[in-house]
C-alpha cells in the first residue's frame, strides 16, 4: 500500500501513514492506562492526534485509532484517524472523511462526526487488522472521477541509419510509324541524424520536351521533431491551407505542425460517457453494437471515453456489472466529427519564400517578390474549433477567420470570411454544413469571392473561382443498396460556369459482386446527359472483373476489364481491357511481375486503331551498411534487414513471411509505417545449427522516407558435443564441471552419457574436468569446422591432474 498524502495541518483530525500507526500503539496503550487511572488531562484540539484529546463535537475521554480505509469492498490506500469515545462510538473529522472518499454534504464541517449518525453510510471496524470498512450509497461516495480508456498515445522514439536511396520509374513505348518515347521519374534521397534530403525530377526523350530533357520538380531538406510534433522544411514545399483557402507551392522555409509524428494521437474530440459505480464493477463499452472497451472500475463516478471509428452520429452503450452480478446498461447517443480539433490542440503552418512558377514545366522559376503565409486551427472547446489564415505577397495582403461548430447531434457547421487588400481588394465568404446518420447523410458547402479578391496563388497564377458550391445527400437501404444525390457548381473567369446535378445507386451482391449506376446532367445544357452503369465482381483479393456501359450525347460505349494484380510480397499479374462503341475501338493486354529488385510491366495496346507496345520498370538503389544493392521502389519508411552475410534467411513482418535475404545477407523491407513500431523477425529454425542469432525479433520505428538497419547479429558458433570417459571407459559422473582453458565462458555441467556442449573452440583445445567427488583431470583434443551442423567428438579419456 502506498503511503497516503501528507495530512492537512489545519483541523483536529489528520490522515497518518502506516508507520505512524506502528509508532502510536505504545502511546495508545499508555493512554489507556492513564485513562483508567483518571490521571490523563484532555489535550487541546490542535495537539498531535496521539493519546487522549477533546475536540469540537466530542464528550469525555477518547482513544485515537489509525485505520486502513476500505470503501465498498475496495482498498483506498488511505489511513484514517478515528477517535473512539468511552461509549464505543467512532468519530471522524469531516475533512479527513472527504479525503477517504466520503462526501460530507449537508453535515457539520466544524466538529467531529459520529459515523453512526451519517445517512447513507454504514461501517464496520476490524480492530485486529486495523481496518475500517465503509459501505456507502452512491450519493455518499465522493471519490475523484475515474477516467477510463484515455491512455496517452504511445510515442515511440524513431531511429534512422545514415544512407542514400535512388527511386526510379522508367517508361518507354514504340508505336506505328516509328514513334518512340522514353521518360524517367527519379527521386534521390539522403538521410541520417541530420535530417532528410530529397530531390525529384522528370526526364523525357522523344517528346515535345526534347529541348529540356530533365525538369527538376522538388528539392527539400526537412527535419522532424517528434516530441514537439513539428517539421521544418527548407526548399520546395506546398504551403499550409484550410478548407476555405488554397495551398501554394513555394520555395523557402516552412515550419508546421505534424501530427503524423505520433500516429497514435487522436486529434478530434472523443465522445465521453459518465457513470457511477457503487461496488467494484466491470465496465463494457459498445459503439454501434461493436465492443470497444472492457475494464474494471472502483466504486465512485467514472468517465469513459470512446474512439468511435465512425464520423457522424452513433449509439453507444455502457454496461456496468457490479461485484454481485447485477447488470445495468445505459445508452448514449453521440456525434463525432474529424472536422473538429480536440480541446487544447492546435494545428498550424508558417512559411516564407517565393511562389513557385510553371511547376512541372521549368526547373527554376520562382516569383521575384517574397511571399509569406500562415494558417492556424485551434480546438477552443470540444464543440468549437477556431481557424485563421493570413498571406502577404507582391502588392497583396490577406487575412481571414473561420470556425467549425458542432450542433450537438444535429451535425457540424463551418463558416469563414477572408478579405484581401493592396492591388486586389475583395472578400471571400465560405459556409458549409454536414450531418451524418447511420442511414442518412447530408452536406453542402459554398465559397463565393467578391470584387477583386485574390490570394498569392492567384497573383502568380489562376484567380480563385468566383463561386464554387457542392451538395450531397445519401440514403442507405441496407441489403437493398444505397442512393446518392449530388450537385456541383464552379464559376471561373476563364471557363465560365459549370453546373451539374446527378443521382447514383449502388447495390452489394453475393460472392464479392457489386452493381452501380449513376446519371449526371448539365443544368445549363439539356442535351448534356450522361448515364453510366457497371458491375464489379471480385473473385479474390487480387482478381476482379469489371463491365460497364456509358451513354453520352447519343453515343453508347461498352467497356470490360479482367485483371489480377501482383501479390504484395511478389509475383506475377496481368490485365485485359477493352472499350468498344461510339467510334471507339480500344484494347490493351498487359503483364507484370513484382520481384525483390523491382517491378516490370509490359503490354500491347490500341487506341483508335493505332497500336503501340510499351514497357516500364520501377525500383530503387540503396546505399547502406557499406553496400549498394537493388530493391523495389520505396515511397515511405523502410528497414534493411541484415543477416551478417548469411543468404536465404526467412524474414517476417508482423509474423507474416515476406522474403529471404539475398546473397549478401540483406533484405530491403519497404513501405513500412513511419513513426510506428514495426515487428520484424527471422525464422531461426531454418538456420544451420552452427549459426546463432543475437536476437530473432526486433521492433523498429523508422522515420518517414528514411531507413533503419536491423542486424540480427548472426554469427558462426565454433562448437562441438564431446563425450568424456574415465580411464576404464565409463562416462564421467553426471554433474561434473567442464571448463575450456583459455575460454571466456563459465564452466559447463556434464550431462548424461558423459556428454557436454562447448562453444568458443579453436583448432587445438584443452579442457579441465572436476567431478562431484572433487577428482580432477584434463583432456586435449583437436576441432575442425564442418560445413553443416555441430560435430560430435569423442569419446575422450580424461586423465591426470590439470596444470
UniProtKB/TrEMBL annotation:
GO terms for cellular component: cell outer membrane. It comes from the Bacteria. Residues 1-42 form the signal peptide. InterPro entries: Fimb_usher, FimD_plug_dom, PapC-like_C, PapC-like_C_sf. GO terms for molecular function: fimbrial usher porin activity. Residues 722-782 form the PapC-like C-terminal domain. GO terms for biological process: pilus assembly. Keywords: Signal. It holds the Pfam family PapC_C. PANTHER family: OUTER MEMBRANE USHER PROTEIN, SLR0019 PROTEIN. This is PapC-like C-terminal domain-containing protein. It comes from Solimonas fluminis. The lineage of its organism: Bacteria, Pseudomonadati, Pseudomonadota, Gammaproteobacteria, Nevskiales.
